[in-house]
Specification:
Elements lengths: L7 E2 L4 E3 L6 E2 L2 H9 L3 H8 L10 H13 L2 H4 L22 H10 L2 H25 L1
């Protein structure tokens, strides 16, 4: 593993846990019960961006299907989504990791935004292409 990168196996549809070496579909659900550290500590130890998902796409789709099946989306209270209240300055006190700061500086530069948009476009194009191949 290179620092800040999570190893992902396409065939298994799972991430590699850097502590035990097992491939797990949802690292977030594995880390605490198996190793007794929080996901935040895991991310800091291995330099993983705080916004990087620890759940595989297959696992994420399973969660979404379950939520649709039981209509969990309709039961959510939209007033409770935002944890920051108007005039609250706590979000400015949030300390970002060095990886997050580097990503933000890249994202807010013109070249960085263009590169990210290009990557998203190519990724969408590839996923749409693979979906049309399987149909």
């Amino acid at each position: 593993m290179s620092f800040g990168k999570i190893e992902y196996d396409e065939l298994l549809g799972a991430f590699k846990c850097e502590i035990c070496g097992n491939f797990i579909g949802s690292l977030g659900h594995h880390i605490w019960p198996a190793h007794k550290i929080t996901t935040r500590e895991y991310r800091k130890r291995f330099g993983i961006n705080m916004t990087q998902s620890l759940v595989s796409t297959a696992e994420s789709q399973k969660h979404a299907e379950r939520a649709r099946k039981y209509n969990n989306f309709g039961k959510l209270d939209p007033s409770k989504f935002n944890r920051f209240k108007k005039g609250d300055n706590t979000r400015q006190k949030y300390e970002r990791s060095p990886q997050q700061k580097a990503w933000l500086s890249q994202y807010f530069s013109k070249k960085g935004r263009e590169a990210i948009q290009r990557n998203r476009f190519l990724k969408r194009r590839l996923t749409n292409k693979s979906k049309s191949d399987t149909i």
